[in-house]
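Cross-check.
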Amino acid sequence: MNPKIHLHQIHPVLPVWDVLDALDFYVNRLGFRIAFADDSKNPKYAGVIRDEIEIHLQWHDKKEWNLEIDRPMLRIVTQNIEGLYDEFADKDVFNSHTLLRETAWGTKEFAFYDPFRNGLTFYRDISSS
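Predicted model, tokenized:
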């Protein structure tokens, strides 16, 4: 008998033009820790982890970017959305449009961009509560 196939994690790869700056942002402002880096002094590929979320950061030449289009947007589920919002509010990571809000599709969420214009949305399902 073949074992059941089960997908259990996803590790998105976000493009960044400075992996060290990205590591600094995710570790010192968003509370992740470094999972790995391909080089400790000048990494081109690294990963950060917080709880069960792992995000990979990959260097891309900034000259090749069009920051206004085709930017990744991650949606990350959490249970204590209010606590996480308060934690990040103290870290000065929000833009002027970042609000904790309830949506028409049954979530409570907030969103902002990292320094490389990758979108991060954190949310909790409230449709069944």
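The chain has two helices and eight strands. The radius of gyration is 16 Å. Passed to J.P. for a second look.
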